[in-house]
Amino acid sequence: MTTSAIRRGARCLAAVLAMVPLVASADWNQLNLTRGVTPYSEEVYQLHMLMLWVCVITGIGVFGVIFYSIIKFRKSKGAVAAQWHENTLVEFLWTAVPAVILVVTAIPATKALVMMEDVARSDMTIKVTGYQWRWRYDYVNEGVFLYSGLARTSDVARQLNSGIDPKTVDNYLLEVDRELVVPVGRKIRFLTTASDVIHAWWVPALGWKRDAIPGYINESWALIKEPGVYRGQCAELCGKDHGFMPIVVRALPEAEYKAWLEKAKAEQAPKTADAGPASGVSVATAQ
Amino acid sequence: MSEAAAHHDAHHEHHATGMMRWLTTTNHKDIGTMYLIFSLVMFFIGGAMAMIIRLELFQPGLQFVNPQFYNSMVTMHALVMIFGAVMPAWTGFANWLVPLMIGAPDMALPRLNNWSFWILPFAFTLLLGTLFMPGGAPAGGWTMYPPLVLQTGEAFPFLIFAVHFMGASSIAGAINIIATVFNMRAPGMTLMKLPLFVWTWIITAFLLIASMPVLAGAVTMLLTDKFFGTSFFSAAGGGDPVMFQHIFWFFGHPEVYILILPAFGIASAIIPTFARKPLFGYSSMVYAAAAIAFLSFIVWAHHMFTVGMPLAGELFFMYATVLIAVPTGVKVFNWVATMWQGSMTFETPMLFAIGFVILFTIGGFSGLMLGVTPVDFQYHDTYFVVAHFHYVLVTGAIYALIAGTYFWLPKMTGHMYDEKLGKLHFWVSTISVNVLFFPQHFLGLAGMPRRIPDYAVQFADWNMVSSIGGLVFGVSQLLFVIAIVKCIRGGEKASAQVWEGAHGLEWTLPSPAPYHTFSEPPPAASIEGGMR
After folding, report:
1. Angle at CA B26, nearest 5°, toward B21 and B29?
2. Is the pLDDT of residue A21 over 60?
3. What is the 8-class DSSP label of residue A249?
4. Could you report the predicted ipTM of this complex, rounded to two decimals?
5. A interface mutation test: which of B242, B350, B354, B375 has the most A CBs within 10 A?
6. Which residues of A touch B306 (CB under 8 A)?
7. For the domain A124-273, what is the CATH superfamily, name and number?
8. What is the CATH number of domain A38-75+91-118?
9. Chain B interface test: which of A28, A43, A66, A196 (most B C-beta within 10 Å)
10. Which band of pLDDT confidence, cut at 50, 70 and 90, is reported for residue A282?
11. Is the pLDDT of residue A272 over 80?
12. Which domain holds residue B176?
């Protein structure tokens, strides 16, 4: 190895090492998929890691052989080219082995998908409607609904050349004016639809996203295991403010959720009385 | 072909000169050159849009453009790169190389050839003109999903007709290539002796003919929905917005193989040349390409797993999608086996070809992960997808195009390119393109949606890294232009064979290839078969 080659190698190494603190300082959550807080999200995380390892191991094998060939079989080192160009056994193996691996990975994938699509026996239903550019949440059979849009603080800061540093805004672009409040430990069925263009409702911690399509009502479900605040965003391009319609889900213990629901019912009652009997809340509740 | 025959050909170059030569030419080399130059110009226009995108995403907050214009950039970048840069570049290579590789004097339909090129400048004038219209350029994404796309302003009909023109151009090009390969092969050039670039292009041409009219139908329905009161895709009128997505992706998935199959052909030409060893598994390469093309028609819905399909549909499209990994794996393994026990040198085309194999494979891996439906519910419409398709399109299709350019440029110009400059281009591009796209995997997994002009602050670090990579990658492509211009203007004289390990009919011609070639078919003895 010549000195110039060593120098070049050292420079490359230095460049790679310079990246390490950046990767190391980054939170693991900023590098990998979230494990989430629902039974389904855990399945998805495991499946993601399985596929990732299949790819990493295959990659190490394939790229290893390429780099070995690059080092070993170079003309400058006097390598003489062989002239073979077929080998039935090898070709059979590298067709069959990947096929078998794929069949094996398809089994947990199928199980996870079946679980995802099983919306039966849910405890409650929330209807999610996408608008340009906010969400409406209807607590079906409870007579409560709310609109949820980008929080004022973020909205001011996100204007072109606002002069406000986003880092000084709490939960910049991930804060709403009214949160979706749900109980923990109950199977919630989500119905998604939209009133104008297609949106997609996505909270990574729940483990899925679902398109909200005008004229369609899509079904999904979540059972949140831990109380907390989970944030997400619209995930389908829906016009100029697509980047500015966040989702915030606050999962509360059952009792606190009940209290919140009663309060929400009481708050909405007078408003709906004004709006007349055509609204979603029954007159009895309004009295 | 002997020097004497080439000299004889040179006396028959009575074509128009100046601008009229290029407007009226029916010569496959002239038309190929026009396609390639057009594509390079579009590559830089689309690249400039990407620079605007990365500049705005350099840090959180909006600093440079408003969200509507940002969406226009995202939309136009995709349309320009797909329909303006990559597809015309492949047709340009096909024009130059298919007749030379099969020993034909020209394309089968030379006037159609002229026409199919000259549609393109008009198509892109329509499309790029929308940037200056009230309401701005289309901003609903290149996928043109209704109802959003119907909110486009005055640009809307221009978008639709531009897409129609692009489609007509590529269908005409595809017909020409099929007619040429099936009718004009030199005696002795049997189908299973064709170079793989020709094989992959025939398969691509069939994909084009099958899928482009579907796109034309989809956008025509958009047009009538907007202006003639139909409701194909409007739920309020009894139509179905999801149907558009099914039709669009029935075109769109074959389209991604239209963009990548010729790249497989180019890698299969370059790697054996610089490994000085026959291509491993020639026939399995042909069958794998055909298998990929067939599968490309039955996997479209993996682009839309989140629309809420029945379980059976989701399962079918998941199984069919991951199945593509098998023939794609065969191709990658064949290239690796070609290198094994070769005698390799690493001129610029080989560097880009090896870069293609490794980086395209990384894109293939993320593609496999995306194909697994339950996990796709997380990945879908995030930067993970953006990273995936840029690995397969930039370090896949574009890398193969660059490799092919360095590989055949000496045959086209008669001069060697500047090897030092080429290698510099490779190393700067390869480092920066990974700094650009690899962190986007992290961003997607961490939860950053795609097509947003501004983002939450936890995504700031990797966006800044990605933008730095992007700006370096963008600027480094100027090295490519300098290398091409230098090579056209002069340089070391190229021999007929150009590369020590080169085999195939195009390398039996003098460099530069004369204006008319193979007026007489080449002797059967010079046809060696595509595995060389």
Report:
1. 85
2. no
3. E
4. 0.92
5. B375
6. 200, 208-211, 235-236
7. Cupredoxins -  blue copper proteins (2.60.40.420)
8. 1.10.287.90
9. A66
10. very low
11. no
12. 3-213+239-526
